[in-house]
Design goal:
Blueprint (H helix, E strand, L loop, with lengths): L4 E6 L4 E6 L2 E11 L2 E9 L8 H15 L3 E4 L2 H9 L27
Parallel strand pairs: 4-5
Antiparallel strand pairs: 1-2, 2-3, 3-4
């Protein structure tokens, strides 16, 4: 596959987009509240489904949240499942909010 894939933030639209050869293939919508980002909805264009782009998108959005020091509230089930499966992102969800999202209080992986 020679497609160019990038995750970009569209702040005016309050979303991160995954671009394939410059075309928006999907997005994750968010709301900002102070130093936290609530991820509310993820959507992929059906033409791009089944290529792992949803995971690329969410990973990019979570990496951007980490880079700016923002807490993450994963209201979107897709984002919540991603964090559950990739617990290196669990620290982005405040400890006192994890039960609300059915996430473990502690990272199941060995401490780094």
């Amino acid at each position: 596959m020679t497609d160019s894939v990038a995750v970009v933030e569209d702040r005016p639209a309050s979303r991160f987009e995954v671009l394939v050869d410059g075309e928006a293939a999907g997005f994750v919508a968010y709301r900002r509240n102070g130093s936290s980002i609530s991820f509310t909805h993820t959507e992929m264009d059906e033409r791009f489904e089944g290529r792992g782009l949803g995971s690329v998108l969410v990973r990019g959005a979570l990496d951007a949240a980490r880079a700016e020091g923002a807490a993450v509230l994963p209201f979107c089930p897709f984002v919540r499942r991603y964090i559950s499966r990739h617990q290196e992102y669990l620290d982005l969800v405040p400890v006192d909010q994890r039960a609300r999202f059915e996430l473990p209080a502690e990272n199941g992986e060995a401490s780094k």
